[in-house]
Amino acid sequence: MKKSLLTMLCGIALVASAQQVTVTSQSRLLNGVEGPAYYPQLNSTATQLLFASGDSYGLKMYDFADNVVTRISDEQGAGIDACFNAQGDVYYVTQKLNANNLVYRTGMRYSVATAKSEVVLEAQHGYVRPELGSADNGFRGAKKSYAPAKGLGTSVYVQGSTLYITTNGVTKSYSPVASYAGYLWPSLSPDGKKVAFFAAGKGIVVTDLAGNVLSMPGKYEMPCWYDNHYLVAQNAKDDGHQFTSSQIMLVKADGSFATNLTSATSMAMQPTSAAGKIVYTTIDGLLYQMTININE
Q: What SS3 class is residue 258?
């Protein structure tokens, strides 16, 4: 029994040691062109990048091919939850204070083809968050929500400590792990078969579309899918007042492997990934792009 266990452990060690990840390129984006930039989000083809700019976190979009930055919105917080849909248009949320100092949020859609924004969910008091879908995106609000007429396909969103998954037009709620502080950053794998999200106090959780936990790959934040098998995430540490370190990690979705892509002192955070490209920012708002090679 001991011999077979030792043989098994040696086999696992050999598999782990054979897996290597190499950073093949790394470069600064928009150096000297833009000020601090946060919350980057790539489109599915990694040809365009959304980011929050300035003290108000207004929304801008960078086109890699044209090397052009487009200002989408100067509204407060517009760049924080901004995301592309499957067609390449942009969904974002603006917020304003009314006369009674209550925050009202509006769901907006920006057409890349016409370079115009339109209101798709009227202003309401309370939360308004994007709902990410395989066919299109929508918004979930405290009082009213929005979905395009053709539907979102398979979609996912979170509220509190509840995960909501819609398949075949039916939305079901799940609480796969206990987390009193709630869930954040849900996303579908590129093939639409798995969901990843962050559970406060637990880290990344990967489930199937029925809410069954497949793995818990580690206590990392802001997970995004690199491909159907790997996630990119942030590993940040703090002293209760400020960040003391932060780095970008590559994590296998089944929890069997994790490695850092930047050093702990890089203060790198808020990763986004698509089509083999990784983009992240730093605590000072410096944008970087990276490519990697995974040798299994």
A: strand
- Among 194, 187, 192, CA closest to 212: 194
Report the distance separating Cα 159 and Cα 157, nearest Å: 7
Q: Name the token pair of 8.
A: 């098994």
Structure tokens at 110: 């920006």
pLDDT tens column, 38-69: 999 999 999 999 999 988 899 999 999 999 99
Continuous segment of H or E residues that includes residue 266? none
Residue where the block lists tokens 């003391």: 244
Q: How many Å apart are CA 129 and CA 139, to the nearest integer? A: 5
Map residue 287 onto helix, strand or coil.
coil
**Contacts with 239 (C-beta within 8 Å, 6 or more apart), sequence order:** none
208-257: pLDDT as tens digits = 999 999 999 999 999 999 999 999 999 999 998 999 999 999 999 999 99
| CA dist 54 → 32, 51, 71, 202, 220 (Å) | 14, 10, 12, 32, 27
Is the Cα torsion angle 6, 259, 85, 289 positive or negative in sign?
negative
Which amino acid makes up residue 119? V
Task: Say how far apart CA 60 and CA 79 lie, in whole Å.
Answer: 7
Q: Let me know how long the chain is.
A: 296
